[in-house]
Amino acid sequence: MKVIALVLVGLLCVSAETQTRSPGQLLVDHINSLILSIRNEQTEHDDIYTVQQRECGDELGFRKKEVQDAVDALTRATEHKGRAQAAHASATADLIRVKTYQQILEDQVEFITTRRNDRAANFNKKVQNINTSLSLIDGAEQIVNEFANASASFIQVTKHFNNMFLQATKAGNAGEYAPLLSVLVELSGDGNVSVDNINRIRQLLNELREKLSAALSQLTDNENTQIEVFQARKNRVQDVITLLVNVQGQLTAYIAQLQATITKEEDIINSATSKRIRNQNLLNYASDMCNAFNTEYNDSTGARRKEVELLTKLRTFVEQRVEEFNQYGGDPTDVFASYAKQGSTQAAEAQFLQLRANLRSRK
Fold this sequence. Notes:
By secondary structure, the protein is mainly alpha-helical. The protein has helices spanning 3-12, 23-148, 154-171, 178-190, 195-320, 322-326, 334-340, 345-359. Residues 198-225 form a coiled coil.
């Protein structure tokens, strides 16, 4: 709306209303009406601007809080993820060490079991040799008795004893048979088989049996002791292996829990990042919009203030020349043209007002 144009319209209406008020007075009234209208418009804009400011404050505060909440959540989630990742790495390293310890102990069990089996086989071999030797001793006593009764020849005796010596050599205890071998050599040398010689052979066979029986008993006791030691050691190692297996299960479950925590924190990080970006964009948009409100309000307020100032000057101008305005009932612009022809301050002011009447406008 062009302010000065409205004033001119008011001048056009003066002639139709001269019956009640003079044209100058009507023009002043019309200017006052325009000033009031601008001020009312400013009041309405003030009210709108107040609402806008309140809503901007609420929106900006809300978006800033949302951004800060997202940043806080992002920070916490990043810290939690970092701690979970560190714990995950440590637990994984522990799990590898536990598995390594378990493998070492299982290898140890396998080693001592193999060694125990080897010793058991050696024991059985020694027991077999001793039992074979005892059996040959029993046979030697019988053939010696037959030789004493002349029912067996010396050749049969020497043949049987040769088998005994061969078995003793195989068993590694040939030295035990040396006294018996000496008696047999004497018999083969002089051919005299006396009762004393026979008794000497029997005595040596009994002593040999006792030594072998004692060796067998000692060997058996040692084997039983070794079995007990082996089993106790194996049980201790197996207990540790069982403990390590349980620890592995706990570590595996803990690692899975940590991985779930890491995944959860990553989801929170992604969500918080999206929330921060989204609300930051909305905050920027709201800030731009509120700045636009401020610019519009300030520009409009400034424009209205200048319009009021202009209208106030025009009103003062009209009030000072009311009688002159009353003389013009036809074209209202004649008064401006009249003053424009004068080389005075009033002429310059009239030219200024005419220019503003052509150019000044207000939305």
